[in-house]
Amino acid sequence: xxxxxFAMAVSALALGFISCTAGSKSKTQFRKKVWAExxxxxxxxxxxxxxxDRGTGCPDLCGWGxxxxxxxxxxxxxxxRVENGKLIIETRKEDFQGSKYTxxxxxxxxxxxxxxxxxxxxxxxxxxxxxxxAIWMLPTRxxxxxxxxxxxxxxxxxxxxxxxxxxxxxxxxxxxGMKGTxxxxxxxxxxxxxxxxxxxxxxxxxxxxxxxxxxxxxxxSNDRTGVDAWPFDKxxxxxxxxxxxxxxxxxxxxxxxxxxxxMEVDWVRVYQ
Length: 272
Fold this sequence. Notes:
mainly beta; 8-stranded antiparallel β-sheet; globular; Jelly Rolls; 272 residues
């Protein structure tokens, strides 16, 4: 998901899609688990680990900068809850606070913040035109300035009109969606809405690598040219959400017949 407009009206070829069978295994081994959420309870998400981004982003960033259509609620089990050992993020078609859709955007900010490590999320994604689920990271303190100067790490994004796509992206001042220079690649991964897959990211001082079920999707290296290319030497936190519509997710409209839809998260684990 983007802090500002993610101008990503590009073809699968431009995205650099690769075969799922062509990946490589991680070279870096992070062995100490430093943070985990196994969702072994019921009810609202654990407030010691999760907070919420709220509303529509207005007045400063209407639609969170992407012209998205959802209202992000908080402390509302209709949109975010834990049941049967899974975190459920559910988006619904309903009139709510001036919006026509509701969803949730959970964040670990100041409850789970990391500099370097391996993050793994086992999840099953929603399906339907107009949906835009994401597993991603933003800087906790924005020490280099506003988006995109302090960076963004997109571990997994999917847009409903590409139902079997998994896309991993890095944004910086030099490489970002506003300029069309974002460092992005994707894979064709059938069954992301019917089965659980492990979406992971490994981050060191030298590179950031992305994987689906251990298969490499994308790799971004530190070229040592400075903060405009590599702001990734500060703490980042995790975000989980489903957006509706927006400049990328809503490029071909929203199919209202698909609602409600959910992203189910089995677990989140962080190693350093």
